[in-house]
Amino acid sequence: MARLILFNKPYGVLSQFTPEGRWQGLRDHLAVPGVYAAGRLDADSEGLLILTDDGATQSRIADPRHKLPKTYWAQVEGAPDDAALEPLRHGVDLGDFITRPAQVRLIDEPAGLWPRNPPIRFRASIPTRWIELTISEGKNRQVRRMTAKIGFPTLRLVRAAVGEWTLGALQPGEWKEQHV
Hints:
This protein is mainly β. The protein is built from 3 helices and 9 strands, in the order E-E-E-H-E-H-E-E-H-E-E-E. The protein has helices at residues 55-62, 86-90, 142-149; strands spanning 3-9, 36-37, 46-52, 70-77, 103-107, 128-135, 154-162, 165-166, 175-179. Strands 1, 2, 3, 4, 5, 6, 7, 8 and 9 form a 9-stranded mixed sheet that branches. A hairpin with an 8-residue loop joins strand 2 (36-37) and strand 3.
């Protein structure tokens, strides 16, 4: 039976066990031997990172051929309305590729969301909104690039779910184990 670790990756932590430069590694938060990240989450992004000790499970989660949906909460600069999000629903040309259509909707700030450390930049004259995006791919900095392309740069990005697994009530740095 494969081990599966659901980890709420804090801001500033890499999706690898070894730290680099100013970024911490997973070993600063997880003392679980023999598991590896199934996919990546940038150091400046937060939320659900799945780790496993099983190569087949890791491939099923991380490989884009399986099109496992990934749901993100993005706090964006500006105040998009539903119509402004429409390009995301059709796919956005990012220059090096065209994204698959995303499911996207405006949301309130997610209930129970922890404060980010350090906090995002705040400008009184520029509003922010939260959107929820679900994508079935996961290229480098894709969500950030998508929101910037439509004119609403991402200020904070939290992955809330990967497939059937959700962040739930895990706080930054907390993890729980499941068996699959």
